[in-house]
Amino acid sequence: MTEEEKKRGEAEIQRWLEVGSVEIPPADVRIVTSGGRRIPVHSTVLASASPVLESILGGPHKGRSRGREIPILGVPCDAVHAFVHSLYFARRAYDRCVSATEEEMIGEHGMHLLALSHAYRVGWLKRAAERALSLRLTAEGVVDVLVLSQRCDAPRLHLRCMQLLSKDFAAVEQTEAWRFLQDHDPWLELHILQFLHHAHLRRRRQARRKAEQRLYAELHEAMDCLRHICADGCGEVGPSGRLLPADARPPCPNAVSCRGLRQLIRHFAACDRQKRQQHGCRRCKRLWQLLRLHASICDEVDDASCKVPLCIQFKQRMQEKEGELEEDEDERWRLLVKKVASARVMSHLAKRQSQVLV
């Protein structure tokens, strides 16, 4: 069938579907199902909807299609009837939006319609069947749908099945379909297990990345609180040590972090210096690292304007070490500084975006 004949056939079908426009001609072809049922159809509809059916109708009996029979076997009669019904009516609705009735019909016979649309190369119906099966996947039937998606070359449906397997594999293992798969298709079982293993590793990497991002965000908040405590004072006591009235207290950016940081500073001031030098104090080391981290990301142009203690000393020490050979510890420290600075930039961008939206 040429392109001109196909367009003329589609235009004729369009006129048939418009109620009362023209009289529908009699069917000239019959579809034979597995149960011996014969469904009368029009050769023009079949040829316009499927290139496979077009080649069948254009075979040795081309031009003498009246009274011909095309067998569609291996699927239930109702599924064949839904397939033929879709070829007639659902194409025009699918181009705009599939109606609720058509969607229900495709969902009811989704697996058979996927197989038929793949075999007869009806692309739009195949996509509709894929979507319907994706929305109705369950742990009980996901293995059967997965096997069908492989045989019918449906990658989107295949991925959706694998995602469900990864999410609820414990329930899938209890199904009869999974036990049958283990006995008869070990290669597919291996493929599924490999996918589950990679998915598990991917979730672990994502969890580790999220934990690192939370750590960098907390360190960024600690830097803000340290600058806030040293420059503005926090709570009832100002930076000079004097008691502040309630109306003169600056707002605290993060009350929980500031309270913990103030306790760390008080411990550092009261900790025995000799004990700290001989045995080492974990809390004092933590504050020392926070002060060093602040100096590494401090963007004050004038060093004297920074109120955080030891900021100038740490900056001078870092400048002296610039010409020395890089050690692993220094490299890790530079990476930490880079990540915290990145978290700081992302936090500022998020605040600016929220202000614009408000």
UniProtKB/TrEMBL annotation:
Residues 27-96 form the BTB domain. GO terms for cellular component: nucleus. SMART domains: BTB (SM00225), ZnF_TAZ (SM00551). Pathway: Protein modification; protein ubiquitination. GO terms for molecular function: calmodulin binding; zinc ion binding. GO terms for biological process: regulation of DNA-templated transcription; response to hormone; response to hydrogen peroxide; response to salicylic acid. Keywords: Metal-binding, Ubl conjugation pathway, Zinc, Zinc-finger. The keyword Zinc-finger applies. InterPro entries: BT1/2/3/4/5 (IPR044513), BTB/POZ_dom (IPR000210), SKP1/BTB/POZ_sf (IPR011333), TAZ_dom_sf (IPR035898), Znf_TAZ (IPR000197). SUPFAM superfamilies: POZ domain, TAZ domain. This is (wild Malaysian banana) hypothetical protein. The lineage of its organism: Eukaryota, Viridiplantae, Streptophyta, Embryophyta, Tracheophyta.
